Amino acid sequence: MDAIVLMALTYVAGRAIALPLERKGLSQIIGFIAVGLAASYVLGIDAAYCAELKPIAMFSASILMFYVGLSARIESMRGASSVITGVAGVVTTFTLTYLALTTVGLSPTRALVLSISISNTATEVVGALLLSLSEGDVRDIASSASFIDDIIVAVAIAAIASGEVAPPSIVAKSIPAAVLIAISMLVPKELLKKYRGMARVVFRSYRDFVVTSMSALFSLAIASYMVGLGPLIGAYLAGLVINGFKGYRDPMIRASVSVGKFLEDLNVFLDTTLVPLFFSYAGFTASVVHIDTVLFLTILATGVIGKVIGCGASSAILLKNSVKGLKIGAIMVARGSLDTVLLSSSLSLGLIYLSDYSTAIATVLATMLFAPLALSMINKRYGL
Predict the structure, then answer these.
(1) In this structure, which topology does domain 62-276+289-382 adopt according to CATH?
(2) Is 90 exceeded by the pLDDT of residue 348?
């Protein structure tokens, strides 16, 4: 079967499953990964198909990383509360997972990659879950903490892009990546203030703004690749740069309008096209028969416990409310886009085995189901 025809078939099948999932408040990602896994198992998809589809998947991943940076709610950060909650969740989950995986016999490299990937929280799933909540403090901390998660995993993607996961290499890559992320969040608005002629060019029309944004995306992807950080982190940096334009206040408010419209348009394009393509590919490259039950239960247990303890306990102390802390912990369990990108990149670099990748993808699916169910149970027990 032609690879493009295969992708078309999985898109149609995945969309058919995604529609009822979305009506129940679940992520459409579940449907596309599940269809990809089923197609891989039933049709016996081999590496040749995956190689042919990889450029499409990686392009989709780049746009996805760009969108994650562009949609980050930087202005809603709740200072120390968000940082403490996000970092506590990542550190607790990473530590528990790494210790558990090395205990069951995984090599340090495989354990490191899997521990980093499972430490991330899916911003897109968090956003959907927060729609059902009325507590403003819970919404702010959860959304901001998931942004902290995104920054950490973006740095990890940059660190692992070279294929070297020894601690010195990770530190060497992480420092410049973290500096670039900080610059990308802080500089854009100041540049537009200082050079008003630049603002007139960038926001002359909506089309000019989109052209500038996409040019920034691909330029930074190239630059990031050339310095050894990988194109995905460059795409994320471009999203943060364009995100910063929202803070520029011009008399005609063209900046905020342009960014808002672009974010909405890009979301539609991602939601209807690129997300299905990427997550179908993620399902193709995994293998049901290679899922390791012991590894699955280990990662799922540490992934859930790490977030509930790390994010839930810390936010409960900060908010002085255990129920709100429990809700935040349940919400932060959900995994999704960035950890799948990290896993896919690590598999292509040979840093993890197919069994590791397949098991981790199964864990991503399980957490996507667990988070909304757990939040629903908490709401029924304690109220909204």
Answers:
(1) Na+/H+ antiporter like fold (1.20.1530)
(2) no
